Amino acid sequence: MSKLDMLTPDNSAIALIDYQPAMFQGVQSHDRLVTVNNVQILAKAAKLFKIPTVLTTVARDSFSGPFMPEVAELFPKHDIIDRTSMNSWLDANFRKAVAATGRKKFVIAGLWTEACVIFPTLDMLKEGYEIYIAADACGDLSLEAHNRAMERAIQAGAVPITSSQYAYELQQDWARSETYEGMMDIQRAHSPYGIQIRFSKWALGEHASEGGTKAG
């Protein structure tokens, strides 16, 4: 498998790490509301395309609080793996969940970039996984901390992506009618592109579709 191969519903999985109240409070690198929207783009795209998804928290009951409900409620049957380690890869249950997906291409996003994202990234790269970091769904104590962590990840071989890029890469063609409306719902709810979608529907009618009549 190559990094030139695009992410698809059949070759990839995703891990969302530590989207918890205590971790959000430390985020100063990004507008927190933007991060909240971007992780929902990731999670909703993963659900729409039936991507194997791993959710994990750190010190949920003793310090950091629960995984953000907007994401957790999308996966009601998932066991959210709680850890004590900053590095998810040190947790046996996380490693088992990753292995159980059967995928080698892994999208990772989490709080904070300089610890809970970069640490498992480095270990998973060593284990032969291809790592794609959704940088705009991550956050850190400062922009400097986020940027240095991303640079380190890229130098180690990880691939930076964005949340909407991930969703678009899964969709590929707007004429894929089985996921078209779900994608439009994600964009309307969480992306500035939702403004254009609403305008087009208003101007051209509800039949307006980027996929032509097939996706209408």
TrEMBL record:
<dbReference type="Pfam" id="PF00857">
    <property type="entry name" value="Isochorismatase"/>
</dbReference>
<protein>
    <submittedName>
        <fullName>Isochorismatase family protein</fullName>
    </submittedName>
</protein>
<dbReference type="InterPro" id="IPR000868">
    <property type="entry name" value="Isochorismatase-like_dom"/>
</dbReference>
<feature type="domain" description="Isochorismatase-like">
    <location>
        <begin position="13"/>
        <end position="164"/>
    </location>
</feature>
<dbReference type="InterPro" id="IPR053152">
    <property type="entry name" value="Hydrolase_YcaC-like"/>
</dbReference>
<dbReference type="InterPro" id="IPR036380">
    <property type="entry name" value="Isochorismatase-like_sf"/>
</dbReference>
